[in-house]
Amino acid sequence: MNYKLPLCCLILLALGTVQAQVASHAPTVFTQPSSPPTASASMSHAPEGPRPVVRVNGSVLTEADLLREVYAIFPYARQHGGVPKEMESDIRNGAMKMIVFEELVYQEALRRNMTVPVAKLNAAEIDFRKQFSTPDEFKTVFQTDFHGSRQLLREKIRRSMLIDALLKAEVEDKSVLSAEELRAYYDRNSVQFEFPESYTFQTISILPPAKATADQLREGRKRAEDALGLAKATKSSEEFGMLAEKKSDDDFRVVMGQHKPVPVSELAPQVLKALQTMKAGDVSDLIQIEQAYTIVRLGAHTLAGKKKFEEIKAQLAPQLQKNKQNQIRGELDKKLRQTAKIEVL
Fold first, then answer.
1. pTM for this one?
2. What domain count does the chain have?
3. Which three-class secondary structure state does DSSP give residue 27?
4. At what angle do helices 85-111 and 309-338 cross, to 10 degrees?
């Protein structure tokens, strides 16, 4: 069962070459906490528990805190008994950076005398309880993760909310991009938004078997000619596509013969020559490529150009904002570590 404390900002530090995929060989098995991972907490507020792994300005974080982040980074570990050995080091190091960063952010929030209003804390506790489908599920987690202490539960929720509040002020709010910044990026990286000349089209292809006999080649030619007659009679892309589903041998038949825009540099010369004489909606004659035959229906011809700023700014903003957030978060991490005493235990 998965649940989460109300920490709204996802704090993911770079993990180098770590990939979220399951290896086929035996994984490294970590000792899993008795229940699903929760947010880490300073052990100054918790009973004795798992082995300490790092001390941050005097506050001790444990193996349980580390494993919660390991499982957050690599959730597949739950189903596969652990983390693959070749990924263990990167994931564990990334998780260590994560819990240290969260603890430093929490301590900075306390240093600034940031508080959580009681009403918001009460609402967050109610929301936390609502994650469980039955009272018994909540009771199990309440006993295993919070030692039956409502004070500890509320302290962990408060800690998460303080981390969230500081990150919103220091990272999220400072990552908002102005229209001028977006435009400046577009102008500086204009090549990125250029696109080549391309064609969008549908195909019906008749493909001979490997090492086809003369009879098979003649049969293929006849099938292609029959398909051409039917293709020429179609009146729309839908009709052509339905014919492609029935007659075509190529893999595009499952998508009604439809190809995404293809740059001219990637087209076979025979196909390009035919397309250059066509207008949208036209169906070509038979195009022979070695022993195969193709029939093309032109959807659109797009000349080389450049996407306008107005067309891409809506998609560009989230990408650039995420990059800016990562930069600012990295700077915050570096700043907090400069005066911190961090001891790996």
1. 0.57
2. 2
3. strand
4. 80
